[in-house]
Amino acid sequence: MKTVQMTLDEALVRLVDRVRKQLRLSRSAFTRDALREHLARYTTAELERRHREGYARRPVAGEEFSAWESEQAWGDA
User: Fold this and answer.
1) Angle CA 3–9–26, to nearest 5
2) In the chain, what is the straight-line distance between the N-terminal and C-terminal CA atoms, in Å?
3) Closest CA to 20 of 36, 10, 32
4) DSSP 71
5) In what helix (H) or strand (E) does residue 44 lie, and over which residues does it extend?
6) DSSP states of 15-43 as a string?
7) Alpha carbons 41 and 37: distance in angstroms, whole number
8) pLDDT digit string (tens) for 45-70?
9) What are phi and psi of 66, to 5 degrees?
């Protein structure tokens, strides 16, 4: 692992300390978890953005998925 020095405002540190104590985590563990979670959300948002842009550039054709309609299973039959 690499040691990284960070500057945080005191109110944020107090809030982090309150929550991490309840979770029984160190500041480092709490920060690692928070960074991983944020990066995962960012990655998902980026993939969704790229997906939307792709469909905006090349929209679904009218009958593009009609061949698959008979394969749908809705569970109510």
Assistant:
1) 45
2) 55
3) 32
4) G
5) helix 27-57
6) HHHHHHHHHT--HHHHHHHHHHHHHHHHH
7) 6
8) 999 999 999 999 998 888 888 888 88
9) -60, -30
On the question of pLDDT at 77 being above 70, the answer is no
DSSP state of 64: T
Listed by start position, the domains of the chain span: 13-56
CA 43/CA 10 separation, integer angstroms: 29
State mean pLDDT over 28-46.
98
- The residue with tokens 């979770």 is 23
Query: How far is the CA of 48 from the CAs of 7, 40, 44, 56, 61, in angstroms?
Result: 32, 12, 6, 12, 20
Q: Are 29 and 22 in contact (CB under 8 A)?
A: no
Structure tokens at 39: 């990066």
Q: Tokens for 65? A: 């998925």
Mean pLDDT of 24-28: 97
Positive or negative CA dihedral for 35, 40, 46, 48? negative
